[in-house]
Amino acid sequence: MRALLKEQRVWGPLVSVSAKKENIAKSEEKPTSVKNEDLAEQEEKAHSLILLSLSDEVLYEVADQETASGLWLKLEKLYMTKSICNKLLLKRRLFGLHMKEDTPLQDHLDELNSILMELRDINVKIEDEDAAMILLASLPPSYESFVNSLSVGKECITMEEVKSSLHSRELRFKASANSEGVNGAGLLAFNSTTNGKKKKEQGKKKTKVNPRDICNYCKEPGHWKKDCPKKRNQKSVVVAAQEDSSFENELVLSIVDNHQHFVEQWVLDSGCSYHMCPNRSWFLTYEKKFGGDVFMGNDMACKTISIGTIQIKMHDGVIRTLTEVRHVPDLKKNLISVGVLDTKGFKCNVEGGVMEINKGSTIVIRGIKKGNLYMLQGSTNLISESISVADKHTLDLTRLWHMRLGHMSERGMMVLSKQKLLRDHTVKELKFCEHCVLGKHHRSKFPKAQHTTKSTLDYVHSNCWGPSRVPSLGGGRYFLSIIDDYSRMTWIFIMKHKNQAFKYFKEWKILVENQTGKRIKRLRTDNSLEFCSAEFNDYCKKEGIVRQYTVRNTPQQNGVAKRMNRTLLEKARCLLSNDSLTKSFWAEAVNTA
Q1: What is the pLDDT of residue 154?
Q2: Which residues make Cβ contacts (< 8 Å) with residue 247, sequence separation at least 6?
Q3: Which end of the chain has fewer CB atoms surrounding its CB within 10 Å, N or C?
Q4: Which residues are catalytic?
């Protein structure tokens, strides 16, 4: 805006305002001999230019200003206030700036420059090296190699250096987009660089040949090796090929394929209209009467000799039959048409480099992305491998019934088969099923504890039980059990809250140590909060008690206390039932037990 006003020669009325705001003496810009009439005219013109440059939303905010200087001050107050809020907002935009993969580079640089300019307007200075670092950090993952190559081995970097390198990279990518280095399969057209003129052979003057001389190439007399007609005829094929390719402005079509030829794998293709295969030996059934043409991507027609079926062993081990497969000998890859599968009711889902073809809730076909192609996860079931097709079909039915019945055991399926509940199907031996292992495995048996105690209080077990659904007569809902490992002596403390465990433990410690004259050496508990509080841990460290904790969700490691709690509760339930007492007497029953 300032440049526009200066260009229209109406910046004079705003010079004093700008100089006062920025504390800069601009005496060279101040008009020295300007009449009041001219100054008023410039004021009106500047006021009009500023208003015409504002949007409707901003115009409503400054509509009450009638002078150019007042309008300028109001705009500075609205949008260039050097407040903490504005600084925070702009810095948040700066540090949160990230370029998307599909965003043009110049648009991203323009946005960054705009933020830096707004920061400079409110006197926030960003160092040039910091701005360069922010620009590098805002680039997407595809620029990672560029950032690494630019930052390695350097102690400092400038903004201009980063911008220059980015523009050079952009130009290289645009140039390489039109080059021959295409990663994939496609048609490449180019003009030959020859001038179309055949080079004239400049032979030397021939020497007269003696009829007795013998050729060292064909062993016949009358000529030398360099003039041998047999040798000349052998080279004529190569020479003719070179001459045929030397015409000017000749357009050549060639196939460029940088990928490996997946001759034994299947490609899941959404662009082909039929299933197609060039290998005759893969077909299980073959109809020779079928014919027709298949058009490739370059409108080139390839003959379809036959149509048939091919068996494919899928990723889950199930052999499925692919029907209506065209035999196209000129094809280079085996193609499965995703469009045909969609017509037959299959659903396709592509995510994370994996393509899944579903029929209901069953994954029928799975493809893994290799390069830019989705390759079938499976293999062709050749005819030579299908000698016992009936047995394999029976085995597939056995596996199918196994999955239908929720992975029932082989013995259970045999019982159902004998009762004719599997549609007269004979159950075969099931192979290894990983889903059964994952779904039916259980935790291994825990070994017995290896510790040994020689005296009382050498090793103490403790556990907290509760809460009880029915409070005791005293309002208790928990009880703390403490068991001595050597004597199996047990103490029970009824508690209203779990955090009282530390209090009762200290009382019990003073009691038993005074009675026995011995000290507690080791305490084994679980990881509950009542045993892992800071005051509990500090107290044990102060008293020299070694703490042993169990692994989370592993009650077997504190089996002595857990089994004691179970024994006490079983006895308590029996006492309550025998005396026909209500459950509110459970605390008394536990103490009695």
Answers
A1: 73
A2: 192, 194, 196
A3: N
A4: 269
